[in-house]
């Protein structure tokens, strides 16, 4: 098994993606993966708009949350969300292509902090999301020796 951080991140993303039926069902695509980093995209479909004819906040939350999951699971340690917050800055509409970018802010022991921004196709920021991760037992990849106690600041 390749032990380079980028190769591990990509392999972890492949495993996550193979089991992520929710993101696939929403038309979410993985655009870019690196250690502690992820970019996922989604186009707002007709059945994603609410009574105000704007993208339902739950769909934008799901895109941000999926991006968060892919970023915090790049070290071959099972990670889940323990807490997150979201701020909706501007609406998205049917047909808008949304790009979510997750960046690791801090990772220490079993805890991580990730900032996720969503922009529309015109690069206008419409969502800010902060996710707090918690490492749990297990790995995504077999025959690997993940590092449990890592500090990083981006």
Task: Give the overall average pLDDT.
Answer: 93
Helix content: 10-25%
The CATH C-level class name: Alpha Beta
Biggest sheet details:
7 strands, antiparallel
The H/E string reads HHEEHEEEEE
Give the tally of structural domains.
Answer: 1
What is the general shape?
globular
* Amino-to-carboxy terminus distance: 27 Å
* SS content category: alpha+beta
Number of strands: 7
What features would you describe in this structure?
The protein has 154 residues and is an alpha+beta fold. β5 (111-119) and β6 form a beta hairpin. Helix content is 23%, strand content 37%. It has one domain: Hotdog Thioesterase (Thiol Ester Dehydrase, Chain A, Roll). It is globular and about 50 Å long. The model is unreliable at 146-154 (pLDDT under 50). It has 3 helices and 7 strands, in the order ααββαβββββ. The chain starts with a helix and ends with a strand. Strands 1, 2, 3, 4, 5, 6 and 7 form a 7-stranded antiparallel beta sheet that branches. The chain has helices at residues 5-19, 21-25, 57-72, and strands at 29-34, 37-43, 79-88, 97-108, 111-119, 125-135, 152-153.
